[in-house]
Amino acid sequence: MIKRVVISLFAAFLTLSAFAQEDFMSNVRFSAASPAIFEKVAGALEPYKEEPAGELIVRCAKQFLGTEYVAGTLETEPEQLTINMDKTDCILFVEMCLAMVQTVKGDEATFENFCRNTQALRYRGGEVDGYASRNHYTSGWILQGENNGIFKEVTKYLGGSPLDQKFSFMSTHPDSYKQLADNPGAIVGILKVEKELEGHNYWYLPQSHISDLAKGIKEGDIICFVTPVGGLDIGHVAIACEKNGEMHFIHASTKAMKVVIDSQTISDYILTHKSTNGARVVRLN
To answer: Which of 16, 66, 214, 227 sits at 20 to 30 Å (Cα–Cα) from 267?
Structure first.
């Protein structure tokens, strides 16, 4: 009798687990090409899964060279975890590579686990709860990744200077975001996030000293280019990689409209682009 009860309980557990998996994936919006791309990249990374995360993320990023740059792929209502491995923007490219590394290094490299890892990176507390639950500001994305032990921001330790960072762009430009336009409730949620983010201290590698400070950047570091736009923190995100003995970066480029290894070094890019006045650096654990 006891044996039958144990078997029944185990069967019920398996049924609930299967339901939970199906329920999770039923709430994921993904492109038709994504599962196959995942399998291809995961297979390519599998032999190298024991490499340090910083090395593996560069190897992963190179698998996506040539992927089309497309902005606004997440801006579909209702708010839902959205996966497009065949098209990307700058932050989604870095996030995708990071989630791939986590998945390949995990116990089971499945597309579902990749989706779960992506959600844990993209949404506050790992939970999808409306538009304001997404980590729209890269600073929030960084803080959450640090709290989860995925990486650590090393900007201060590379000789960074204090950054008087304010957060207000989204709440003061609601018409620039269709989910905020005529939606006071969502704006309240964004204002709450902005206030929370202003409760932290920030550092950056300023443009004026970048030639020297950039020497501390390692291959595989996540480079967050600080923007001079008021109330906004980060304007572009990339992954540092070596090229001809110098530190360049892989990114989803708006100029090339695809994922490329940039022809400029990190320091040259910061020195020559008006859209950035420095960088913050995140290093994988």
So the answer is: 66
